[in-house]
Amino acid sequence: MNTIGFILERHSDLCVVSDSPLLDTKILLCHVIECPQENLYMNQQYCLTSRQLLAFNELFRRRLSGEPIAYLTGYKGFWSLNLRVSKSTLIPRPETELLIEKALELPLLENAKVLDLGTGCGAIILALSRERPTWVCTGIEIQRDALRIAEANRASHHVKNVKFLHGDWYQPVLDQKYHLIVSNPPYVANGDKHLSNMNLRFEPRSALISGEDGMRDLTHIICKSPEYLLNGGWMLTEHGSEQGQKVRNLYESVGFLDVATFADLSGLDRVTLGCVP
Ligand SMILES: C[S@@+](CC[C@H](N)C(=O)[O-])C[C@H]1O[C@@H](n2cnc3c(N)ncnc32)[C@H](O)[C@@H]1O
């Protein structure tokens, strides 16, 4: 009843909440027994201790209720990093890696100053700082619990060139200017039908919702950005797949040049950038 082989057979129960029930079961099992996935099948006869079984059953129950795997294990892979997450942080999305790719393609100085607004668990700025250890990076976040997670991720990945600040968008850096500002702000409209989706139900509303049309934070961040960008500086924002045109209009309305939107791997508009003259 409590062998690895037997427990793996329970995976089909998760079909109702997951597209990858076997993988989810393996991840939870490995998390509980602290063993790499590749060793599971070799050890099918291993019996979980009663403590391990209790822990697994609890996680399996929570997964059955739709809770995302990342919140159950406390970790999510993003770019080259395994990042700690908690219920105070959004779970970093693979789509956001497009923002990293585009930022790394920009013609920036070796010692560029870079700002990440709404850093959450620190995914974007930690990925950038790992790729460009000579950049001077700052991440801002309004939720103190999320900021603590970002700081823990910075420390565990031994990142030296990032500092995290608490505050409301630009408020902690009023007298600063940057070569690059990046942001994946909340951009879901209040009342959007996707908010009742399994995964989103568990994530902080404050990381997702941005006013009645989803544009409140993007509008603020983009319209204020010229005050915080050096001449020739760049702004890069993630946004919803149907917000590309509105976001480009905002960039152009405040004088950005070379404004362009890029699609993610699903072919959906996801990231817009522009350069101030
Ligand atoms: C969509 S999440 C993105 C998190 C992370 N950057 C990522 O890509 O995984 C938006 C983040 O913005 C933060 N946020 C919301 N309003 C904010 C504000 N006024 N000032 C600073 N951060 C804010 C939220 O707490 C949340 O962590």
Fold and architecture overview:
- This protein has 277 residues and is an alpha/beta fold.
- It folds into two domains: 4-66; 87-275, Rossmann fold, CATH 3.40.50.150.
- The chain has ten helices and nine strands.
- Strand 1 (75-78) and strand 2 form a beta hairpin.
- Helix 2 (21-33) packs antiparallel against helix 3 (50-64), helix 5 (97-105) runs parallel beside helix 6 (123-131) and helix 9 runs parallel beside helix 10 (244-253).
- The longest helix is centred in the N-terminal third of the chain and has 15 residues, at 50-64.
- It is elongated.
- The mean pLDDT is 96.
- The structure holds S-adenosylmethionine.
- S-adenosylmethionine (SAM) is lined by residues 90, 92, 96, 118-120, 123-124, 140-143, 146, 168-169, 184-186, 206-207.
Q: Which class of secondary structure composition applies to the elements?
A: alpha/beta
Q: Overall mean pLDDT score?
A: 96
Q: What is the CATH fold-level name of the largest domain? A: Rossmann fold
Order of helices and strands: HHHHEEHEHEHEEHHEHEE
Helical residues, percent:
25-40%
Based on the coordinates given, report the CATH architecture of the largest domain: 3-Layer(aba) Sandwich
Shape: elongated
Supply the number of helical segments.
Answer: 10
Number of structural domains: 2
Oligomeric description of these chains: single chain
List low-pLDDT spans.
none
CATH superfamily annotation of the largest domain? Vaccinia Virus protein VP39
β content, as a range? 15-25%
Strand order across the biggest sheet? 5-4-3-6-7-9-8
Quick one: biggest sheet?
A: 7 strands, mixed
- CATH C-level name of the largest domain: Alpha Beta
* Cα radius of gyration in angstroms: 21 Å
Intertermini distance:
67 Å
Query: What compounds sit in this structure?
Result: S-adenosylmethionine
